[in-house]
Specification:
This protein has 354 residues and is an alpha+beta fold. It is built from 14 helices and four strands.
Length: 354
């Protein structure tokens, strides 16, 4: 079964969820009976905490230079914000004293957010999962969360679907199939989420590995045609370019779908990668996440192209120094292109295994 990794995550280092819960409760008391003012106050408070947490994450990245860890910290903070918001909406805004069977909801992270890694400017993809059709209660809870996230300045992709709708649409649409493949439970009704994963594995995944692989490799070719076929572009796209993060994601999507694994490490057990290749995968992933997070912090936007005007600043942030005959930025870009080549080699290894 394609069950998600249920290993407890480390506590959030950059966001105090308990303090946020107390603050939202205090705001609820202060603005009792004034819902519009309450929503505004909650969004303003959480936006300030989000910005403070991002600043902390940036300082920690500059210190430890661990890109994947930075992306994990930002993701855990976002998880906690959504969890606090869900509980606030469920208990304070729209309490249901005697909920019916239809008044159940699971809040699920999908797509890139579902992987458990976020860059500072990443979109937030959410699925509000229901047992049956939408109810007034479910609609109100989802809207309360979404409007607050939007007011915080976040870009949120969202869908509200029943389990039946998810399965039906995943069969017909490879993008939705991939989003559910990467889905991760955040809050609400865990049983509902587990039902989705079990049915997804049984009714969608089984027997369709070849179809999925062909579709993902075709998507990759189309993406590289748009982004540039060479991995040696002078201003490479860290996310979508050849040898970038999306290529690593495609590797894992295929491995997860075909071999029914939950982590890259498990691909070693299936003989796809050896231990050395696994280390290369992790090094490539951490380096690319470091570059991407720094790019977002430096430009203060979701910038994915490593342009000339920021290359040297990123190099300095990553700790590169000038050596005789080679400047800091040249050493950095050489490392970048070597990483992109390693990602290409891993892609070839997986394709050969398939």
């Amino acid at each position: 079964m394609l069950s998600p990794d249920q290993t407890p995550r480390a506590p959030c280092e950059i966001f105090d969820a308990e303090a946020a819960e107390h603050e939202l409760e205090a705001l609820g008391t202060k603005y009792s009976g004034r819902e519009s003012e309450l929503r505004t106050a909650v969004a303003q408070y959480l936006k300030a905490e989000l910005n403070r947490g991002r600043n902390q994450a940036e300082q920690m990245l500059l210190k430890d230079r661990h890109g994947r860890r930075c992306a994990e910290r930002l993701c855990v903070m976002q998880d906690e914000i959504i969890r606090v918001l869900f509980e606030f909406a469920r208990k304070r805004l729209y309490p249901s004293l005697n909920p019916s069977e239809s008044e159940r909801m699971a809040v699920v992270a999908t797509g890139g957010y579902g992987r458990g890694l976020l860059a500072p400017g990443s979109d937030i993809d959410l699925l509000f999962l229901l047992p049956y059709k939408q109810t007034a209660w479910g609609e109100s809870i989802a809207e309360a969360i979404l409007y607050c996230l939007w007011d915080m300045g976040l870009k949120v992709g969202h869908a509200t679907r029943s389990v039946d709708e998810c399965i039906r649409q995943a069969k017909a649409d490879m993008t939705i199939r991939t989003a559910i493949l990467e889905s991760r439970f955040l809050n609400g009704d865990r049983v509902l989420f587990d039902e989705l994963i079990e049915r997804f594995d049984k009714n969608v995944v089984q027997g369709t590995g070849a179809e999925f692989v062909a579709a993902k490799l075709a998507e990759r070719e189309d993406r590289l045609r748009r982004a540039g076929q060479s991995r040696y572009l002078v201003e490479p796209n860290v996310k979508d370019g050849k040898g970038g993060l999306r290529d690593l994601h495609t590797l894992f999507w295929i491995g997860k779908y075909v071999y029914r694994v939950r982590s890259v490490e498990e691909l070693v057990d299936h003989g796809v990668f050896d231990q050395d290749e696994l280390k290369i995968f992790r090094r490539c992933e951490d380096f690319l996440w470091s570059v991407r997070c720094h790019m977002h912090f430096v430009t203060d936007r979701p910038e994915e192209r490593l342009s000339f005007d920021i290359q040297r600043e990123i190099a300095i942030r990553l700790g590169y120094t000038s050596h005789p005959g080679m400047r800091d930025v040249e050493r950095f870009m050489k490392h970048y292109f070597l990483t992109a080549k390693n990602v290409g080699d891993l892609t070839a290894i997986l394709c050969a295994a398939l």
